[in-house]
């Protein structure tokens, strides 16, 4: 996060809260992504962890505890017990539940922006509507020398992108990025192994079984 990211996030959070709707409990409820709200939250203002609850209630069962800084998907918010509660899930997968909106702020991407509104990157990529094309280092087997594979990328802001890589066998490999992080790939039962991703400097290294792809930040973030 950039040095002024916290201040930017706080201002943005306030704006998004004001753009929400009043609930039956007369509280402002943050907007969902489909209504222009943030796609992701970050947990803030907690020291010992935030309770993720099964229902939007302080008395509901605790599903998990979330540490400060945890990134969450915004699955919609609602009013209950005179406060706003948000339906969330950790970025990339995990237990789903509700947390009080008081402990959330819009998550900031590595490019310094907060992703808001619907994510259309996968849809556009599926239609071949790319923001950029080029080639990235790739290898299809553990003992194979690195070569280059053509790619196309569709971006939707805030570090959200879908990268489609053309493999030498004529098939494609799709890699999904959220908030500048590689979170998964298009796979099937015939694929060679699990998805693994690491990031060092400005390079993402993606492995799916013995397949390897090296994707620079510039492909994901643009600019």
Features:
223 residues, mainly beta, SH3 type barrels, eight-stranded antiparallel sheet, five-stranded antiparallel sheet, 11% helix, 43% strand, elongated, disordered N terminus
Explain this structure to me?
The protein is mainly beta and 223 residues long. It folds into 2 domains: 102 residues, SH3 type barrels; 101 residues, no CATH class. 11% of the residues lie in helices and 43% in strands. It is built from 3 helices and 17 strands. The strands form 4 sheets. Strands 14-13-12-11-10-17-16-15 form an 8-stranded antiparallel beta sheet. Strands 8-7-6-3-9 form a 5-stranded antiparallel beta sheet. It has a two-stranded antiparallel ribbon with strand order 1-2. The chain is elongated and about 60 Å long. The two termini are 18 Å apart. 36% of the residues are buried. The N terminus is likely disordered.
Give a quick precis of the structure.
The chain has two domains: 5-106, Roll (SH3 type barrels); 121-221, no CATH class. Helices cover 11% and strands 43% of the residues. The protein has three helices and 17 strands.
Topology:
Layout lengths: L4 H14 L2 E2 L5 E2 L10 E4 L6 E4 L8 E5 L4 E10 L2 E8 L6 E4 L3 E3 L14 H6 L5 E8 L7 E9 L5 E6 L5 E7 L2 E5 L9 E6 L2 E6 L2 E6 H5 L2
Antiparallel strand pairs: 1-2, 3-6, 3-9, 4-5, 6-7, 7-8, 10-11, 10-17, 11-12, 12-13, 13-14, 15-16, 16-17
């Amino acid at each position: 996060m950039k040095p002024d990211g916290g201040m930017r996030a706080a201002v943005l959070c306030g704006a998004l809260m004001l753009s929400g709707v009043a609930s039956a409990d007369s509280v402002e409820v943050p907007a969902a992504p489909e209504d222009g709200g943030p796609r992701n939250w970050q947990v803030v203002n907690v020291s010992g962890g935030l309770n993720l609850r099964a229902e939007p209630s302080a008395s509901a069962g605790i599903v998990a505890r979330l540490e400060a800084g945890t990134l969450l998907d915004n699955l919609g918010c609602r009013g209950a017990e005179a406060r706003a509660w948000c339906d969330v899930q950790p970025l990339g997968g995990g237990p789903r539940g509700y947390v009080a909106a008081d402990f959330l702020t819009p998550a900031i991407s590595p490019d310094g922006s907060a992703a808001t509104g619907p994510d259309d990157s996968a849809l556009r990529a599926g239609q071949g509507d790319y923001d950029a094309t080029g080639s990235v280092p790739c290898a299809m087997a553990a003992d194979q020398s690195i070569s280059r594979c053509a790619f196309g990328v569709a971006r939707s802001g805030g570090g959200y992108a879908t990268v489609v890589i053309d493999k030498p066998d004529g098939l494609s490999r799709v890699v999904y990025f959220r908030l500048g992080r590689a979170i998964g790939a298009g796979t099937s039962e015939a694929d060679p192994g699990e998805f693994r991703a690491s990031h060092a400097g400005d390079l993402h290294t993606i492995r799916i079984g013995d397949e390897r792809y090296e994707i620079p930040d510039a492909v994901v973030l643009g600019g």
